[in-house]
Amino acid sequence: MNQVVNGDFIEKSQLQDFPEAWFPIGGNHASSWKYKQESQAAYFLEISNSAGTRAGIVQSDESLLAVGKNEHWVIKVVFKSQQPELKAYLRLYPTNWHGDVMCPWEFYFHPRIELKKFTQFKQIVTIDSDIKFLRLETGILGSGRLSIYELIAYPLIPKRLKWKNKNDQQAPPIEHIQSIGEILKPIQLAMPIPLNVPVNVQAKVHADIRNLTPLRDRVQIYGNNQAPLATSSCGRAQVEIFGHGFQESLEDVTASPTRSVTTTRDVAALARFSFAIYNFGTLQANVQIELSPDGIHWAVEGMQREVGPETMVILSPEGFLRYTRISYWANGSTTLRIWVQAQS
Fold first, then answer.
1. What is the rounded distance in angstroms from the CA atom of residue 174 to the CA atom of residue 95?
2. Do residues 55 and 31 touch, judged by C-beta distance below 8 A?
3. Which of 34, 126, 275, 320 has its CA 20 to 30 A from that of 79?
4. Superfamily holding 22-155
5. Phi and psi at residue 180, in whole multiples of 5°?
6. pLDDT for the residue numbered 275
7. Which of 68, 248, 38 is nearest to 147 (CA)?
8. Mean pLDDT for the chain overall
9. Fold agreement (22-155, 246-343)
10. What is the DSSP letter of 287?
11. Mapping DSSP to helix (H, G, I), strand (E, B) and coil, where does residue 226 land?
């Protein structure tokens, strides 16, 4: 039933010590992902995270979950943890038939402490007709340690059960009915008996034709394949509204002599974005943009910038890759506030 590619982590990647069709995501330089084998048929991923941001695993582009034409799907995460305060998450990235990634669906859960037993988180989601793929991501929010054993996904199809009592006997068919008034209690009919009852209806219709207003009335537009009008499967018109949407996120970090990085951000659907970094401390800090095509391999973008005490600098990448983050460091300890603001 499981339709997640390598959902049990048995197949190992040929390029690195990691399960095939999966990538690590998030975390920082102190986070770790360990691929382990518990038995001959049981493999798992142990995630250790000390950062305040998320650290998890995400499906590769070639192993997305095809969910077209299914109304309901069951998503399960099988894991172990000995930390009841740990907060885990499940994130689903829906992709429509045009290849556009929509806003992710996020679910959060806490593990139950049961020695030598697995804990299972189950979530049922409803898939719209416009969605073709789902990309699964799961992991830890904040610091902690989590062992993920399996990710399971399958369509929820109701079973139709037919019950039949062997002691029941089929009632003999009724040949004819002399009068409707003779039936005093329900009887079982072998087949429908047509009754021809003439009906005459006379009525007067009063219609009020008035001017339509946009606040009080609505108009539905229907089209077909020959018309130059995009419609949905049920015949409603699809309208694209052109404009700029605004997104913003904020992250406070502490710069030290060790080079650190911020949260990894997926900017594939953003038309324009920039970083703003403000130094609250008394020491000078250094910052630089990093870009990545897959969230694993990173390259620096542009020149590093200096952020003096109680000053702010703005960074905007000239190149484009799907994932981005900021690396930062200082000679001592100083607090930085990092904004990322984008137009979509």
1. 57
2. yes
3. 126
4. Galactose-binding domain-like (2.60.120.260)
5. -65, -30
6. 94
7. 38
8. 81
9. yes
10. E
11. coil
Q: Where are the domains of the chain?
A: 22-155, 246-343
Residues found in the chain: 344
155 in Cβ contact with 4 (< 8 Å): no
Shortest CA distance to 291 belongs to which of 268, 320, 328? Answer: 320
Instruction: Please check whether the domain covering 246-343 is classified as CATH 2.60.120.510.
Output: yes
pLDDT tens digits, residue range 187-222?
A: 555 555 565 666 676 777 666 666 666 666 665 555
Determine the residue type at 337: R
What amino acid occupies position 214? Answer: P
From the list 244, 250, 301, the residue with the least C-alpha distance to 272 is 244
pTM above 0.70, yes or no: no
Give Dmax (Cα) for the chain: 104
Residue-by-residue DSSP string for 179-218: -GGG--S----SS----------------------TTT--
Q: What is the CA radius of gyration of the chain?
A: 30
φ and ψ of 61, to 5 deg? -65, -25
Q: Which amino acid would we find at residue 206?
A: H
